[in-house]
Batch of 4 targets.
Target 1
Amino acid sequence: MNTAILRVSNLRVYYDTLAGPVKAVDGVSFDLMNGERFGLVGESGSGKSTLAHALLLLIKPPGRIMDGQILLSDQNLLNLSREEIRRLRLKTIALIPQESMNSLNPVERIKDQILDGVADHSRKLSAKEARDFIRELLDRVQLKPEVADLFPHELSGGMKQRICLAIAISLRPSIIIADEPTSALDVVVQRQVMIALGRMQESMGVSVLLVGHDMGLMAQFADRLGVMYAGKLVELDTVANMFKNALHPYTQLLIECPPTLQEKREFKGIPGIPPQLLNPPSGCIFHSRCPKVKKRCLTEVPNLKEIYPGRWVACHLYSEEKI
Amino acid sequence: MKIFKSIWSTLGSTATYWRNNPKLLAGLILILFLFFFWLAGSLFVDLKRAQPISGLPDQSPSSRYLLGTDSNGRDVFAVMIVGTGLTLKIGFSAGIIGLGVAVILGFISGFYGGVLDAVIKGIVDVLLTVPPLAVLVVIAAMRTEAITLNFMIFIVASLSWMLPTRTIRSQVLSLRERAYVSIAKLSGMNNLEIIIKELMPTLIPFMAAGFVSISSTAVLASIGLEALGLGPQSLPTLGMTIYWAISFSALLRGMWWWWLPPVVVIVILFVGLFLLTSGLDYIANPRLRRVR
Amino acid sequence: MTVMYLLKRMGILILVIWAAATLIFILPRLATSRNPISARIGQTAGAAGYLSQNVGEMVKAWEAKFGLNQPLWRQYLYHMKDIATLDFGYSLAFFPARVNALLLSALPWTMCLFGTATLISFLLGSLAGALLAWPKAPKFLQYFLPFFLTLSAVPYYLLGLVLLFVFAFTLRVLPLYGGHSIGMVPDFSLSFFMDALRYMLLPGLAIFLSGVGFWSLQMRGTMVIDLEEDYINYAEAKGLKEDRIFFRYAIRNAVIPQATSLAISLGQMISGAILVEVVFGYPGLGTLLLKAVSSFDYNLISGIVFIIILIVAVATFIIDLLYPILDPRISYRRQVA
């Protein structure tokens, strides 16, 4: 039996604006199992990135974690002190950031930026230890040891991303949260980075939470997928099941959108625009764009329910179904 | 009835705006206070008393002379009124002249680019390195005829325009990039009018900030020159008053009413100008709003 | 850093010096209709009561001595030669002292005062500003903000006046005037230094207070923008210690625009320092300039002005040289404007 290493329940993250609270993440619950590759997919503004940052308690004002629990092996992260959280970062939960173009400190060399994490979490290494450590680390992400003496602006986008990957694994964390690590890269480099990430995951047995908007990428990488829309989790399932037979209308549309090699047609979009999170519509948040909308959807909010074992969906289409 | 309602709502939104930007309001109040001080003063006080030998010299403040008299027999209170007006005039006029130069040069430099841009930019950078006082001293000291107020205005304006020119130039540059793209898409033709219409609204906050900045620099420079005695000899500007106070050892003679009032007025002026600049900055740079 | 960068900065330095020298040559000849020396001689002579026909001869003799009867381009060349050898001729006010001698005696005083006060105010002010922007700094520091705001707005020299009145005149704690006690001979002894320090305290304080206000506000502004950068977020995500993020990530990056600010403000700051000297009668370039102006000592004025411009240009040059050390991105691409 595989255990859950991270349990998120009913997480709410709101942003306080002059016009009122924006409900970026509105009651999301899921488990990250030990050693699994979990994908969190959704379009821009779905709240996936906010969620990823919330897990590391990196939400800054005007954002606030309103409600919910984040359990890391029975310890609620929301109850920890600032220092305890600091110690968890990188060592236990590591982040691979989205904008690696600017994520690295422009005035420090790469080796210093790798070593400072080590120094602040365990101890300062001797010169020789440091050299070996860096060489080994860079080798794992297939970068030459000379890279360590360079400054970030001397590296390409792909190289910088691999450095961030190297930093993420440097202290052998239990969980890696990758926040759209390849969105800013071209396809070729994207593949390289994802392969590297996959290899790390396998050899180290790390649990990876991959946040992104590219269904194709998710299909190739993830074991299980969670689909987010407008701050809510609408479907949760294995990748295989989801692509074979998606349950939620939104997921179905997401999968249908890009044309395949077999079926050459025009790019289909999803009609309508995502709802504004300041004043979300009543009932199911997807109802205004849903092709299968019913009267009930306009007034009643569907909860995330386990329709079949391991298959969760928040939709009124399935609320009458019995397991 | 409708007009009344709309005026009320405009006042309401203006009030909210001012509440969010207290610095701008505070600065404006201070400057307006000085302006009205001068205005009211000119109407109610006999300004001839600011001339020498209007009263007995070296009198401490009394009911007759609200701020006493200086060593030349000037009524210090009258001097304050006249001086405030003069210094405000220097700031305002220099501000206008400097702003004109900054806008023209900034626009030409940013818009036309190329050699013209390089030349203007070069001149601006070199002039920025030069300590303004030094040059002004040379100019002022060399003048055989008496230094008039207009001369002062002109020379202090001549060294205050550089920084706003740079700001305006970079604004024009960035707008030019954007305008080109949209214009090219629309008509393939370079419509100068459209570009100007697009530029002007965005430039206004920078022009306002530039005006205030140039005025501050100009007033500072004028006071600096006057501190060395290089101001209009016959006019009791605030700086000249301080200069005369120092030359007549007012400090050592305990004649606080002579040197302190101009200092106070100047401090009010500068703090006001500074708050205005911060307030305008606040509008132009929304990121500053999050630091509280 | 690359050679190109170095050459370019040197080029600008030389250009500024040349421009300054030319300016000093041109301006007096523009501002008056007649040549400045004769105008002054005329006035001085008139004040002393000489008969006008003798004045004419005096002027001619003076002009011949200073080469003012030569064609303009010749004068320019002589002028440039003089500047190159740093020879400004005789001082009219302190005749027969040469301008150079006067400059040399005044310069160390100004450099000490201006240099130390500016340096300390820059360093402390920047640190204060950084702390004001840092959300995790103690909240009470924010109370300093209006204080800094007001201070930065007040010109040095007025602050000097107020300080003089409060501390020297009213409280009689510190000296009123000068650079050292009367009777103390300037030398390199410790007792002289201690004495000079007492005299430097108030003018230094005037420069320091105003400067600290200005620099803290500048740094705060820069830090606020800096703290929003992605690398700060990532540093936090890495769970780095607070002071490491504050110093190595935030301040280290904010220092770059702050140094630019410093370079740009040098001219303004030295002008302010000069005026402060006037208020305190401090024996630096400021008091010298006052004397020169009131005596219409053209040579001395030119000398002082040139030295001031030179100081600022060289200081700017030094800061420019430090740039590639501060910002590793600079060596590899053209100067960021």
Note: Residues 332-337 of chain C have pLDDT under 50 and may be disordered.
Target 2
Amino acid sequence: MIFREVEDRDLITQARRGNVEAYNLLVSRWEKRVFNYILRLVGHREDALDLTQDVFLKAYQHLSKLDDVSRFAPWLYRIAHNEAYSLLRKNRPEGEMAFEPRSSEPGAKLFPIELSLAVESALNRLNPDQREAVVLKVYQGFKFEEMAEILSCPVSTVKSRLYTALDLLKETLAPVKAGEA
Amino acid sequence: MSCESIDLKEYFFGEASLEDRRLAEGHLSACGTCRDELSRLQLTQAALGSLRDEELPRRIAFVSDKVFEPRWYRRLWRSGPQLGFIGAGLLSCAILVHAFVQPAVPAAPMVTAVSDQAMIDRAVAERVEQAVVKAVADIEARQRKKTVEMLQAADRKHDLDRRATLEAISAQTSLIMRMQGRDYAVANNLTSGGQ
């Protein structure tokens, strides 16, 4: 992980000097994670792909504004967050969910694909802020402070959103997973 | 310690401080409710983990995207050999263009240039000739003056020499005459004394 950070830093430095290949390599490292992050926010593959493209384009254009290269990941996700929410605000009225939730039967024996669908459904029941908190913490592995930087809010707000989301998910998913076991 | 006094979710995500972690572990060892809660959190996380990351439908269009390519002048500026070749090419083109375009220019300016040059050459030749004539005249004048001075000096010297010679001759003549006079007197005395 340390070596990876050093390499990313070098790539960013070279990309700032106009080395496109260095930036290409940086993109290849982060594109899948950023795409999945956006996908779980907007719920549409083509939109997620377009937004991911936009994110890396904006990141390249504003790379010189990145003060601390070691903070590249939160900075990149901040751009992704803004892009995703910009689309959500444009497409949907405030508070409306991204997709229609699918129902699941707690305790029922599920196949892996069914479990995935149940998880997807449970995530979709969360409001966008809660869902994003879960995605950033559980799927992207950011620390609370990094999440606060990405979401531009206090750590206490991050915790509040995440804990509430976990309580909701726990009610739905823990029995499902326990039943599967 | 009460259940509310520990942040179980912070502990669960591994973000609790060392002290808080010890407190949570101490509490969990004694509280079945919190152990169950922790177990449910683990099940929830395991369920969430079943949702895998998706592969990108296609790679982010990057290398081929013109937006990401540096401007042509930046690429050119960064490439020394390329810059050199392009510079050489431009120079060759300039030479070729010059070679083909320059003869097409009307010859009048060249004639004018030639006549101008001839006038200049003539003017220069005249000035040079004048300068030479003047210099020769100056030299001749100086020579004449010097010759005159030398002749005058020679005359003066000749005159002095002649005077000196005449004085010497005169002195010697006087001496001879005095010596002859004395000899004559002696001879008369001898003659008169002997009779």
Note: Chain A has two domains: 1-91, 101-181.
Target 3
Amino acid sequence: MEFLMGNEAIARGALDAGVHVVTGYPGTPSTEILEAVAKWNDGSVYVEWSVNEKAALEVAAGASYAGARTLITMKQVGLNVAADPLMSLAYVGVKGGMVLAVADDPGPISSQTEQDTRLFARFAKVPVFDPSSPEEAYRMMPAAYALSERYRTPVIIRPTTRICHSCATVDTDQKQPQKQPEGFIKDTQRWVIFPKASYNNHKAIETRNPEIGRDFAASPFNRLTKGGRRGIACGGVSYAYVMEALRMLGDPEVSVLKIGTPFPFPEPLAEEFLQGVNDVLVIEELDPVIERELQTLCGKRHINVDIHGKQDGAAPFAGEHSVESAKAVISKYLGITDPTPKADLAPPQVVRPPVLCAGCPHRASFYAVKQAVKGKKAVFAGDIGCYTLGNAKPLEMTDTCLCMGADVTIAQGLHRVEPDTINFSFIGDSTFFASGLTGVCNAVYNHTDITLIVLDNATTAMTGSQPHPGTGVKMTREIGRKISIEKVLRAIGVSAVEIVDPLQHSEAVAAVRRAVEKPGVKAVIFRAPCISVSKPKAPYVIGDDCINCKKCIRDIGCPAITLKDGRPLIDAALCYGCGLCAQLCPVGAIREVR
Amino acid sequence: MDILICGVGGQGTVLASRLLAWIAMEKGLTARTAETIGMAQRGGSVVSHVRTGHVIFSPMIPIGGADVILALEPAEAVRCYPYLKQGGAMLINTTPIQPITASLAGKPYDAQAMIDSLTATHADVHLLDGPAVCAACGSPKALNTAMLATAVKLGLLDVTLEELRAAIISRTREKFHALNLRAIDYVTEEATL
């Protein structure tokens, strides 16, 4: 028995299934899967952080062509980046078992969208497993590899945040030996995608998938518990919420259908469920996937059962479920009273949004750009990462944020419509390599006038400090080949590249001003390490000569500077010693503690 | 037993929840925890749910289900109060961490008012003098362990100090042992509750 996080359970499941090659790109809530593989790697597994999800999937595809079992990890929006290889790979197929662990994020808690990977799997025509607990995630992994090899298809396991980031007592008893890969065997009919072959493969896939659905009806991951003429269907973590809610409601008589393989849908089991009930309530997060499958099945089999769920408003469409929401929806459906105790207290809540850390160099970078173009017409296109938090007061330096890499290209589009505007794009170092580079090429090639700000903090900070090509260190901590951002920018024709420490405030402002004056695509690389990969310096303190103008609080919003009895005070325990506040204090009252 | 640990990103709620889960597993129980990881960790509100027992479904404690709430920050104690079971106990570190929004508005929130609103309920409320712990241990990083030790000393958890010490030694990295054990010693020997 081990106490494992859901992500660790997936990693352990892959290792115990003899995985050989593991690739991925960090993204909450999926990041710890690949990190756990690396942590437990006995040297028999090749693990890498790839530059993005597309690269990760293609590297793994090659390994799988050569017969190795592979695992690819990403978050749901990462699958959009890997969509191109996935759609084609589904047709070409694999040799060594391939599992994509794609984490969905109902809420969303740390994501741009509430997209549903179960539907993506259906779109790509590949089977998908949906674990309801870390224990089940562990058990699904060998089943997913076996299925992948049996049908030569990529398979997806789709945990959600509450599975990824919850821990459970897991019985890790499925260890299989790692098989020696057969190697790549040349076969152009198989490995070269051509329209004729795709036509044949498409036919084969559509024959195969219903067969898999029928097999899934007997899978231990799908369960029918008969208990009455009212039915509840659910899957993923919603199953846990439903079971807990039913227990709290005194175990009312209901039949429960738990779906662990939403695609291909286990129709025979679902039909047995539908034949035994008068109506059904579906409780699932994100899209109404199980709900629509049951409706389709009712139509196909002429089963006269009402299916309630998201589409008729019985269950909410957006946001994540909880025991409370499951209990409320079930109570209403069954016509019983929800006994949830009401809290006898409603004090005013303190609003506490996430903020850039004390000492974060991004704060200094945003502040330098803000000061450099004060009073000028400027738009700040932002991107995905810690620096999205630059949108908050008092910096307010993120005007747009769409998806990874879009800062560079959105800025170009804005500039085409309003050429009198100074268009900035802010991109992190990891994002630059993941998907920013093509956007910069586009700007240079098409002669756009934008100022690219690269926030180089020497790590992938938001997801917990992963290395990337610019760090020159691989995820195994071995030395890799370091790729210089400035050399890349100069080589593709960026007209001016300034490199400056954002924590040297006046130099940083001057560098931005110089860059803005130049024509075409120019860049400022703000280079200072993330506090998570550097040591704190001596903290700063506000002296008695403080004139209480509060500029330090008003301008930069550092969480280490608070108000005490109406005067600014630096919390020495939080201060990282970045010294930005000392540089903006009009009377020099903030000093380093010596 | 359902224990909710809340605080602000960086205060160490995750380690505290893991320690409780490991201790339960040593006793042959199963455990589930759910944690806040990701963007909210950047100075935002964080919550760890710890559930120990035999058959546990949800990784998160239902509203009104927590036997104990360990709050590393008073405003977070108020935020999580609805999770407390009727007659449940709360242990609150009295030190506020002011959100930036409060400092910018020039209106720091009143920690005492938060605590008063909780003591006015039927809950069994206990307070921990956070600054004293940090001063005695020489680091704010000892706060999470001090909270656990205090809850143990108050008899709020089904855990002994020996079990807590053993979990720290066997489950955390060696460089953290001295600080965390010092926090336990301080709470057991010196802190007045």
Note: The radius of gyration of chain B is 16 Å.
Target 4
Amino acid sequence: MAVLEELQQAIISGNRDKAKELTQKALEEGLEARKIVVDGIAVAMEVVGEKFRANEFFVPELLIAQRAMKESLSMMSGAPVDHVGTVVIGTAKGDLHDIGKNLVAAMLEGAGFNVVDLGVDVSPQQFLKASSDNSANIVAMSALLTTTMGSMRDTVAALDEAGLRQKVKVMIGGAPVTQSYADEIKADGYAPDAASAVEKAKQLLPG
Amino acid sequence: MAEFTVTFLPDNGSVTVAAGTPLLEAAREAGLRLQSPCGGEGRCGKCLVQAQSGLEAPTPVETRMLSPSQLDDGWRLACQARLMGEARVTVPDSSLVVEHRIMVEGVEREVVVAPNVRKLSLRLPAPVVDDPRADLSRLMEALGEESLPPARLKPLRDLPGLLRRSGYHVTAVLAGNRLAAVEAGDTTDKTYGLAVDVGTTTVVAYLCHLPTGAAVAVASDLNSQAQYGDDVISRIEAARSNADDLSGLNQAVVAVINDLVARASHEAGVSREAIYELAVVGNTCMSHLLLGVSPAGLGSVPFVPSFRSSQTVRASDLGIDVNPEGSVYVAPNIGSFVGADTVGVILASELDRSDGLRVAVDIGTNGEIVVAKGGELYACSTAAGPAFEGAKISRGMRASAGAIDAVRIDDDVSCHVIGGVRPRGLCGSGLVDAIAELVRVGAVTETGRMLGRKEASSLPEKVGGRLAENEEGMEFVLARAEEGYADEPITLTARDVREAQLAKAAIYGGMELMLQQAGAEPGDVEQLLLAGAFGNYIRRESALAIGLIPSIPAERIASIGNAAGVGARLMLCSLGERRRGEEIARRTRHVELSERKDFYDRFAGAMMLKPLPAAG
């Protein structure tokens, strides 16, 4: 579909206005929101992730692609879309940094996930509640300050105590976070950047 | 009552006064300010003048204070000598109160020098049966009522021996109004202070001659605290998690300062003992670490410092190697992440006295922005990262000899190197120029991607030929191996462009938010001042071209160099400026960007390497 290919290019090159225009055009041509997301947006974000891993694209390209993607998604809000899974995401308690977390949220959205973004300074209890309220498959946590990493451990414990640990996978990230810390707190996954986070999230889905 | 004319030489000012008028008063009327720290009581000997006639005979006080040969030559004390006829009086410079003014680089500021540390050379009358005053009283009375006796033992212990060895000709060292030290003879000229800007990445020290305010030497170095992390957050984390690290961080910065003290004093031929005071500016975290105070509260919400006000401590308590009686004035901070260095910038640029809309940006690791609007002051920190100070850039370096500080591309690349030597690296201003030029010719896209060789076929041959591939990706050769120092090429990598892009997006995003906060558009800004690390004079055209700053008419933008350092010098050399700095710290409102939900969106939009805000 020409319009979807053009939409992919608009998102990959971060052209917000074109993305909006082409999404509008696609909807006018009678394409379903579902199709636009899967064959337009998700494909574009996949390409963006690949270029990132190849060191061609970097944070700026991810950010502008994500903005274009959001523009496109906003034109279809309310329309039924099949999500591949639900992720509850937030920055750990005591921490206000959110740029990395926002990037991951955007990439996950682009890949077809239903993303519930709790924002910053999120307590274990808040993660717990959002997780059960939204029947989340994954709880994703980010931290930039080493002291707030402890709160990630607390969230895993809270999920355990509430008997939800089996139903929900936990993945973590952030500058000071490492795979070994993820192992230590018995998280299910760790990713060093937004593109790998999408891969990891897909791996953690059931089935 | 008879009146006579007194003519003062060498200025030839003259005045007619009644017979019996003390010369000191006549001088005042003629517009001459003679020194009289003892209040005109004939106790300090500073108001020496020379006259052959027209004055009443020397008083007993004068006979005691002055030697027979001095009296023979016509030397008199102006506070004691009274007029009795026409007189011509010669006033030596040493008897005048001189106000020194310093011109501050790049900022067009003239400031009257009035440092905290002053020295007064005194010839005290020796004790005699009629004047058996204690040594300390003799000295303190010569200094006048406002002076306070020494707070520490050393000056007191030095006093008896010094007075007698020097024939009662000593120099009193005053810190504020307190006697800090006593030295033999006249050492008034040997009074120095050090103004220090402790940056997260770079530390700069200016050795200043305190009586005149002149900077006699400058030395800078990288802040070795970097081993604990490039940025303030990492250092706060290290300090809070480990007492040894807090101590290590403190020792690292003290070591850097001591090294700068050694280098600057060596360069100026000044002894370290002659350095009596330090005035230090730095961001809030730096202030804490210098004093060895834990910055732990700054590590998480709600971000609370241990202190915000200025602190004055003994140099010896910090292990700083200057005069043992020396003190360190650590200037006050504005908020948790906007510190004394920003107070320095405001002081240097006089943003505190603006009526209209003026903005200052410090293009350094923390990217502080100050907006002055209608007398109100707002400041924020954008945590830009050290790219513009030369760190995190593969061939980045500070702005010193060997740094490429300007780049032009036409059919080939030409670089200007500081000192005219072979280039060793790239400093902040060179980085901004290089990126602006590369984007302009199309070797780097507006999104920050460096083109591959094949994609760049439309570029002039010599320019396109400089694009090369290494293991990590693309790079651009600014100076070829045969042109570079030690036959090493100077390259700008694709990754370097990304680092600079992130840094500039933080600064631009912060500026946009601050202007919005002030209810203003870029076009409303009357003046934008670019401050930065020592030696960095970022070209405004390049800054505009890559969207580092909003599109404000170029003539309203000026580069003011190391304004924080200038502020430290002002606070060192003038108590008036120091008080003004305290007021600025109190008044300026700290804006916490991370609490603003819209910062992320602005940051994302600010990534583009083109003039911003984007048209349409």
Note: The interface with chain B takes residues 13-14, 55-61, 63-64, 66-67, 94-99, 102, 121, 144-148, 176 of chain A (CB under 8 Å).
